[in-house]
Amino acid sequence: MGRIILGLLLLTSLVYSREWSLHISGMHCIACTLAVKKALLSVHGVQEAKVNFKNESAFVNAEDRVNLKMMQDAVAQTGYTASVVAK
């Protein structure tokens, strides 16, 4: 029974997630990367955040309920700006 529930939870998180590619302006060191990553992960529903200061980029995997403004607000609190990278 436990395996079934775990499987359903995993399936639900995969089905109801969205990937974001963000440009983060102003990062120049690893401390910047850590601050932005921590801010993104603090957004309720963000499941994963990979941040790269050299590329000024972030890859975010989040639940559908997470929107760009939520992530932008969190990043802004660290002193940086976030915008969506056009595909």
What descriptors fit this protein?
single chain; 87 residues; alpha+beta; Alpha-Beta Plaits; four-stranded antiparallel sheet; 3 helices; 4 strands
Describe the structure.
The chain is of the alpha+beta class. It has a single domain, classed as 2-Layer Sandwich (Alpha-Beta Plaits), CATH 3.30.70. It is built from three helices and four strands; from the N terminus they run H-E-H-E-E-H-E. It has a four-stranded antiparallel beta sheet with strand order 2-3-1-4. Strand 2 and strand 3 form a beta hairpin. The model has no long low-confidence stretch (mean pLDDT 88).
In brief:
With 87 residues, this protein is of the alpha+beta class.
Chart the SSEs and their pairings.
Blueprint (H helix, E strand, L loop, with lengths): L1 H14 L1 E9 L4 H12 L4 E7 L4 E7 L4 H9 L4 E4 L3
Antiparallel strand pairs: 1-3, 1-4, 2-3
